[in-house]
Amino acid sequence: MADSSFQPLQPTTPQSVAETVFLPSDDDSGRRLANDVALATELLSCGALTERQVAETLANWSLYGSVSLRQHLQNTGLLSPQQLQEIDAQVAQTIAQTPLPELRGESDNPVASTIARFDTTGRVARLLGVSTAVGADLQGEGRTGLTRYRLIRLLGQGGLGRVWLARDCDLQRLVALKEISATRENAASVQRLRNEAEITGRLEHPGIVPVYQLASDAESGRTFYTMRFLGKGTLQDSIAEYHERRADGDEDPMLLRHLLSAFVRVCHAIGHAHSRKVIHRDLKPENVVIDSFGQVIVIDWGLAKLLDDAELETLGKGSPSGDVGRTSEGQVLGTPLFMAPEQASGRLDELDARTDVYGLGAILFAICTGRPPHEATHARSTAGASHGKGTARELFTAISSGPTPQAAEINPDVDPVLAAICAKAMARKRYARYQQASALAEDVERWMAGEPVSAYAEPARRRARRWIRHHQRLSQLIAGMAGLALAAIATVGVTLNHNRVVGRQTQYQALVGDVREVSLRIRSIAHDLGKQARFMATLPEIQEIVRARDVGDAEAEWLGRLETIYHGLMRANPDFLAVTLVAAESPAEANQDSSTNSEGAVRRKIASVDVMRVERNAIDRSYVRTVPRSRKAATDDDTLLADVFAAELGGVVFSMNPRSHQAALSSSSAVVRRMIAAVRVFDETTGDPFGMVMIETDMNAMLAESLAGLGEVVGEVYVADGQGRVWIDVRPRLPPTPAADGTLLAEVCPEAKKLVETDRDQFRDTDGTSYFGQRFREQPRSSGVILFARLPKSE
Predict the structure, then answer these.
(1) The pairing of beta strand 173-180 with beta strand 674-682
(2) Within 10 A of 420 (CB to CB), how many other CB atoms are there?
(3) CA of 320: how far to CAs of 46, 47, 120, 343, 345, in Å?
(4) Cβ atoms within 10 A of the Cβ of 30, count?
(5) Half-sphere exposure of 387 (CA within 13 A, CB side)
(6) CB 18 within 8 A of CB 128
């Protein structure tokens, strides 16, 4: 084998947000960055939260924001105070043992170098969406010389080795280069890397990553191998996107079929490996890459085993890892959240192709539910545990002795046939599983083709429907002969009943579509309103007013300019009721007095006064006026302003309730319902809060327009606030009608009582043919807006 070597290719241009946007400029910023990165790394390694929970937490937090990750965790309430204290202690110890770069000396990119020092695996950088792009020098390598492979950046690191993005200078192509970590290099680990390369290299299949070369570095003697660079899109990313779209109401069945088609190709790739007497032993969605052209490739064969290999495995010393989202080392090999019972028991001699079948079933479980099969088991094992101590062993015990996870318990909407396929593939007893990966793939393909599967005993009705669909002409002939034998009145009765059922189901689906369309319209209204409010809060005239008040200058000129802008906004948006600049009178003194809002959170009691308010006349909607100084509203307890001050900087706070002191824009015959979007205004010079800009829009008018756009509805559609007070409704052959003040949805539609009382996000009848309800929330913890529709009772 010819020797080769490699050296780092140092980046010469900014590669990440950290290099171009956020550069710490003082010691406090550097310490804050180190604490945030070390805490994120500790969350992934301690096992107190799953990787999915950590990913969701980091997605709602910014590394460059004003709120630290520690404070964000405390606000979410995912961890108990005791767990946070223990994690803080571990983070402090990690920081004390890790040298930090000088802010303006060791590295031109302190953010990238700090992440690289704490996040050796690259998982925190991936979850944060930050490319550290560090070369070999920041990793402590310092290799130089003329080489064939030049390292570009670190792609990831595990317990044994690390993977670099490198350039093959001979063939001028990008490759992935894997080598042993410097701290783990010994004869056993080198042999394990060679075994991994040799096993992967013998598997020549389009669905398995090809190995290009196994060699040793000419200068350092370090063993490495290169393989095809596949990018970073994995099956896990596709699964997460699919379930996010489902949560947003996108029920396109082709999304699931694309995932299942990819899963079938994974089964065939694993089946090829089994035919070569190789088992993977670490199957999970993260180890399946989907490239830019849709090709599905299985990677990470580091735990692969030759079934006919008589050589004993060298497992080394060490206990099971506490990180349930990563591959464990020691007597238990694999990823706990996707692990088969025999793996969790440490019975390595019993591992065979059926162990991989369990892993494939776990991947199918994740496709159906969006979660790993043992995530609920992990949650139960961590209940009562402190800082995840002992969690791994408890989890392994639960996996090896507990029942098979059921997909329907996590996702009640999953097709029962797919759930049965998952259950068979993940049976606790190996003999009860599919005996080959190809058999599992065949059942999934049969489900996609509408054919019966081996894992599910179909009811007679379902078998009959399939037979009719496949033998349409013969079934029509039989039906005709049966009709001749029956009395005419019976035939007519059956036909009418069938048409009634089909017609009602069609009407119900149309009604559900109407509800979702109105929900999307309300979401669009809130989005546009928030954008307008955020823009109005950044007007230079507002900052001039703030500055004038700070230094005691006259603000009349700037108030006049602001008044002109507000009038233009109101004329351009006929559904806007008012736009207001509100100032907090004494926010500093208000910190000493607090109360509790409707969501149970403690808020400040803040006094406020309207600085400028332009509103639309309730009767003559074309008349827009500026509220005179004598009628400007003031209050000693502005709850909306308190919520705005409590929100994150730049966040939009929505409210469906008018402010307690404002004059209602209503006539004697109708009540005006409004949506308010408010954004914080602060002094850009001092950073102190000043007040807020709020825009109010007429929900009645916008809802009437949305409901009218539905055309002829087949049932009744109601829009109510979160407490069940009806705003507007539309009925067949009638235009949208605003409801009288005090009309309760539960009285008009008793079927909606549970939706109102239980604060549920969605509600439907058991047979899916009568009514459907959905709740739109403008804020995560608010009661939101209720949309409810029902069909008239069948005769």
Answers:
(1) unpaired
(2) 21
(3) 12, 12, 20, 12, 11
(4) 18
(5) 13
(6) no
Q: How far apart are CA 574 and CA 621, in angstroms?
A: 8
Q: Are 342 and 357 in contact (CB under 8 A)?
A: no
Which residues lie below 8 Å from residue 671, measured CB to CB, with a gap of 6+? 664, 738, 740, 741
Structure tokens at 357: 């079948």
Q: Which regions of 244-362 does DSSP assign to beta strands (E)?
A: 278-279, 288-290, 296-298, 305-306
Find the largest Cα–Cα distance for the chain.
Answer: 98
User: Residue for token digits 């959905």?
Assistant: 774
Structure tokens at 576: 């806007």
What CA–CA distances, in Å, run from 701 to 12, 587, 603, 780? Answer: 56, 36, 33, 25
Two structure tokens written together for 264: 């079938």
Answer positive or negative: Cα dihedral of 539, 542, 544, 547. Answer: negative
Choose among 99, 105, 114, 87: nearest CA to 32: 114
Q: What is the mean pLDDT of residues 531-548?
A: 89
Distance CA 386, CA 364 (A): 32
Side-chain-facing half-sphere of 341: CA atoms under 13 Å: 16
34-53: average pLDDT = 75
Alpha carbon 292 to its chain centroid, in Å, reads 22
Q: Is 622 exposed, middle or buried (0-12, 13-18, 19+ CB in 10 A)?
A: exposed
Side chain identity at 166, as an amino acid letter?
Answer: A
Nearest to 340 by CA among 363, 369, 306: 363
Q: Tens digit of pLDDT for each residue in 495-538?
A: 777 787 777 788 888 888 888 888 888 888 888 888 998 899 88
CA distances from 452 to 232, 420, 766 (A): 36, 12, 26
Q: What is the pLDDT of residue 746?
A: 84
Q: How confident is the model at residue 603, as a pLDDT?
A: 59
Q: Which 3 state secondary structure label does DSSP give 609?
A: strand
**Reduced to 3 states, what is the DSSP secondary structure of residue 576?**
strand
Taking Cα atoms as reference points, which of 181, 185, 239, 190 lies closest to residue 215? 190
Torsion angle, CA of 320/321/324/330, rounded to 10 degrees?
A: -50
The 8 Å CB, 24+ separation contacts for 148-151 are: 148/4, 148/5, 148/6, 149/4, 149/5, 149/6, 149/7, 149/175, 149/177, 149/226, 150/6, 150/7, 150/8, 150/9, 151/6, 151/7, 151/8, 151/9, 151/177
**pLDDT mean across residues, the chain:** 78
Which amino acid, residue 19? E
Return the closest-CA partner of residue 725 out of 700, 761, 696, 702: 700
Strands 223-228 and 173-180 come out as antiparallel
Of the candidates 242, 211, 216, 215, the residue with the CA atom closest to the CA atom of residue 227: 211
Out of 18-27, 269-278, 698-707, the most confident range is 269-278
SS3 helix, strand, coil % of the chain, rounded to 5?
Answer: 45, 15, 40
Which residue, 606, 617, 614, is CA-closest to 559? Answer: 614
> CB–CB of 36/87 below 8 Å?
no
What's the start-to-end Cα distance of the chain, in Å?
Answer: 83
pLDDT of residue 444: 94
> What is d(CA 153, CA 155) in angstroms, rounded to the nearest whole number?
6
pLDDT digits over 636-685, tens only? 888 888 888 888 877 888 887 776 545 444 443 446 778 898 999 988 88
- C-alpha radius of gyration, the chain, whole number: 32
The amino acid present at 433, given as its one-letter code, is R
Q: Which two tokens stand for residue 350?
A: 């019993």
pLDDT value for 262: 93
User: Pairing state of beta strands 6-8 and 149-157?
Assistant: parallel
Alpha helices in 171-304 (DSSP H): 187-202, 235-247, 253-275
Query: Distances from the Cα of 662 to the Cαs of 580, 609, 634, 637, in angstroms?
Result: 11, 11, 9, 13
Percent of the chain topping pLDDT 70: 79
| CA-wise closest residue to 117 among 106, 127, 216 | 106
442-451 mean pLDDT? 90
